[in-house]
């Protein structure tokens, strides 16, 4: 299947299902944003890069949030004293 045929198929699907496409987009962006925030908060650069580059419709993001990020605690140290 040529690449142009793949894009035509995707364009036809998006045109036929705009609400579903929008829901998938919002779902994916919400999980990605939350996972990226958690990775940045924990200073996990490699996870941040992987989450930023890989688009898995939220699956890798959900795995990171509920499995990996739960292993680490963030401590706030007050150095103002």
Provide an overview of this structure.
The protein is an all-alpha fold and 81 residues long. It has one domain (23-81). 70% of the residues lie in helices and 0% in strands. The chain is built from four helices and no strands. Helix 2 runs antiparallel to helix 3 (45-53) and helix 2 packs parallel to helix 4 (59-68). The chain is elongated, with a radius of gyration of 18 Å. The mean pLDDT is 85.
Gist of the model:
With 81 residues, this protein is mainly α. It contains four helices and no strands.
Q: Calculate the mean pLDDT score and round it.
A: 85
SSE ordering = HHHH
**Total beta-strand segments:** 0
Q: Point out poorly predicted stretches.
A: none
How many distinct helices?
Answer: 4
What portion of residues belong to β-strands? under 5%
The proportion of residues forming helix, as a percent range, comes to over 70%
The value of Rg in angstroms is: 18 Å
Q: What is the CA-CA span between the terminal residues?
A: 66 Å
Main sheet attributes: strand count, strand direction, barrel closure: none
Q: What's the domain count?
A: 1
* SS content category: mainly alpha
Q: What would the principal axes of the Cα set say about the shape?
A: elongated
